[in-house]
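Sorry to interrupt, but I need a hand with the structure work. Could you write out one complete protein record for me, on any chain you like? Could you add the entry underneath, on a fresh line?
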Amino acid sequence: MNDTAADLRFVPLEADDVPTVDAWLRLTTESAEDVPLSAAPHCAADLTGSVRFAPPDTSLAGEVAFLDGQAVGALRLVLPDGAPVAVVDQLLTAPKERRQGIGTALFRRARSLAAEHGRTLLVADVVQALPGGPARHEGPAAFGAALGATVSDGPEGVHQWLDLDRHDPSAGGVPEVPAGYRLRRWGTVTPDELAIAVSELGQSLGESLPETWGEGPEAVRASHVRRYERMRVGRGRRAYHVGAVHEATGELAGFTSASKTTGNPEHLLQGMTVVASAHRGHGLGLVLKLANLAHVREYEPRVRLIETANADSNRPMIALNQAMGFVPQERLVSWEAPVAPAV
C-alpha cells in the first residue's frame, strides 16, 4: 500500500453525520458520469434518504475515505438478513485521485467491514458491454480480478432503457383488458385490501406459495410491501402501480410497479411486473405495463427515459420489454471474493 492509501481516514456513513453525508453526496455526483446512461442522474434526496432507509430485510454499512480533509473514496455494503454475503453496493474513488492505491484500500476495508458483520463472501454486479452495444469500461472487472475476485455462478442481468422520444409504446393506447379481468390503479401506498396479495405476489414471483405462508397474522403477511413503502417514502420516491383483478374470484392476478425520484423529472424506474402462474397466457404483462405507463404520464408528464433490469434467464420479460421499445444497454455480471483472502 502506498503512502496515499496509508494516510486514509475512514469515517462511517451515518445519516446524522451531515458533513460526511454531504461529502459523500459530492463524491458520488462527481463520479456519476463514468458510464453514460448506465443510471439516472443522482438525486440528492434519494441518496440522502438511502443512508437512513435500507431496502427491506437488509442493513447497510458504509464508510467515506478522507485524505487531508477531502473525501476521496467511498464504499457501501448491503447486508441481507440471515445470509453470509455482503453485497458491494458502492466502491468508488474520486476521479482525480485514482491510481494511487485508494481503490485497493477501499476493497480491503470492504473485506474488513464484511468480516465485522459476520459475512464470508463479498459479491458485486459488474457492468459488461453487450455485443453490438455501447462500450463499457473494463476497469472494474480488471480491478476485481487483480484483487482475487472471480465471476460467480450467480444470475446475470440485462440493463435496458426506453427513450420515449424515439419510441412511444403507448402511442396506440392501452390494449384491451382480457375478458374476465379489470384493472386497478394505486400510488405509492398500497391499499390495505391489496397489501397481502401484493406482498405474496412480489415474494413468490407469481409461483405457488408454501402451504404455511397464509398462517401468520395479516400484518405480518402484508409487511413486505409495507417495508418497501417505508423505504420509498423515506427516500422521497413516488410510485405508481396497476394491478389486474380476476373478476370471478376477486383475486389480484398480477401487478406492475414503477417509481421515480424527486430530482429526476425525466427518468422513471420500471420495477417489478409479476403475474400469478394461474393467470398467465392472457397478455396481462403487456397490458399492465402499458396501463401503468399511461398512469405515470398523467402525473409525471416530463418522463422521457425509462430504465429496467431483468435476470438474463427471464427471456419472456426481456422479449416483452424489447417489444415495447426497450433497448439492452449492458450486462450485469455477478462477481465474488472471499472475505478472508487466500494466503
Summary: DSSP finds ten helices and 13 strands in the chain. Residues 209-215 have pLDDT under 50 and may be disordered. The domain at 181-303 is CATH 3.40.630.30 (Aminopeptidase). The chain has two domains: 3-158+333-338, 181-303.
